[in-house]
Write a structure and sequence with these properties.
Strand content: 25-35%
Number of helices: 7
Order of helices and strands: HEHEHEHEEEHEEHEEHEEEE
Bound molecules: ribulose-5-phosphate
Distance between the termini: 20 Å
Shape: globular
Helix content: 25-40%
Oligomer: single chain
Strand order of the largest sheet: 3-2-1-4-7-13-14
Low-confidence stretches: none
Structural class: alpha/beta
């Protein structure tokens, strides 16, 4: 199976977790895009979705799924999203698509985070994928220097502005042996909006497309 076929397979499997759910939290990326298509085709009876990005919002609307405001709906039962890397502890690096802050907000506001990935995303130790950090534009150089102090090599994602009108630093070569601690340290740097480590609030269930199967972890 191709990587995209594996993404489709896990996206379809995720439908099981949204049965009888009135409002679904929906992440961002190519795997989630498949999930949205399956959700629309399923004709399940649900009220709508809370979206993690403008891109996801556009796709949800295109397939006829109502998009709801998180502030109006309170705690969500389920959040479905992909990841750039996931560890055996269900800690993740996310933000390859730049939607990390809204993704983190919805994950925090959800009872259950179902992560859907193809097997290429599974790693023993996080960090081969450069860690995205969303930064207030005027703090870009300052935060970059702080990331160097942490041992990373920050690269400004040029020509990219987040949905929140901020910039992204992709930080290479970080030694992520304690993801929870590093997530907190980076959060505490002035000018950082959020970082792509999802360790304090990791996934609850991981669906992995591997070979011809979907493995649940
Ligand atoms: C976007 C994300 C995505 O979940 C992550 O990049 C995975 O994307 P894809 O499903 O396209 O592989 O964090 O900000």
């Amino acid at each position: 199976m191709t990587q995209d076929e594996l993404k489709q397979k896990v996206a379809e499997a995720a439908l099981h977790y949204v049965k009888d759910v009135a409002i679904v939290g929906v992440g961002t990326g190519s795997t989630v895009r498949h999930f949205i298509d399956y959700l629309a085709d399923s004709k399940q009876n649900f009220e709508g979705a809370v979206s993690s990005s403008e891109m996801t919002t556009a796709h949800l609307k295109k397939v006829g799924i109502p998009v709801l405001d998180l502030n109006a709906v309170g705690t969500l039962d389920v959040y479905i999203d992909g990841a750039d890397e996931i560890s055996p502890h269900k800690h993740m690096i996310k933000g390859g698509g730049g939607a990390l802050t809204r993704e983190k907000i919805i994950a925090a506001a959800s009872k259950k985070f179902i992560c859907i990935v193809d097997e290429s995303k599974c790693v023993d130790v996080l960090g081969a994928f450069a860690l995205p950090v969303e930064v207030i534009p005027m703090a870009r150089s300052y935060v970059a220097r702080e990331m160097v102090k942490l041992g990373g090599q920050p690269v400004w994602r040029e020509n990219f502005i987040t949905d929140n009108h901020n910039v992204i630093l992709d930080v290479h070569n970080l030694n992520i042996l304690d993801p929870i601690k590093l997530e907190q340290i980076i959060n505490n740097i002035t000018g950082v909006v959020s970082n792509g480590l999802f360790a304090m609030r990791g996934a609850d269930v991981v669906l992995i497309g591997k070979g011809t199967e979907v493995i649940t972890r």
